[in-house]
Amino acid sequence: MFDEDWVYFQAPPSEMTFINRIIEGCDYLGVVTALDGKKGIGFVRTTKDTAQETKDVLQSLPIPVRILTRLEAFAEAEQT
Questions:
Q1: How far is CA 67 from the centre of its chain?
Q2: 5, 15 Cβ separation under 8 angstroms
Q3: CA-CA distance, 79 to 34, in Å (whole number)?
Q4: Where are the chain's structural domains?
Q5: What is the pLDDT of residues 2-29, one digit of tens each?
Q6: pTM of the predicted model, to two decimals?
Q7: Is the pLDDT of residue 46 over 90?
Q8: CATH topology (fold) of 7-78
Q9: How far apart are the C-alpha atoms of 27 and 35, rounded to whole Å?
């Protein structure tokens, strides 16, 4: 259900809308979904072809964005 090729990330929760709009502006990259919006954990549904470019875009933003593995993202989301 949650693909390894998707790009998982953590960013300040207040910046999730900003990230969504940036990724939406790059039509071909993917779709942003929050795993835990209160913790700023989300993912971009990408393909193998767009995953690295998506990571590059996220890391070039003027906000702190940490790229996570799928397992890290779920572990962070489950922590209280």
A1: 7
A2: no
A3: 15
A4: 7-78
A5: 888 899 999 999 999 999 999 999 988 9
A6: 0.93
A7: yes
A8: Alpha-Beta Plaits (3.30.70)
A9: 21
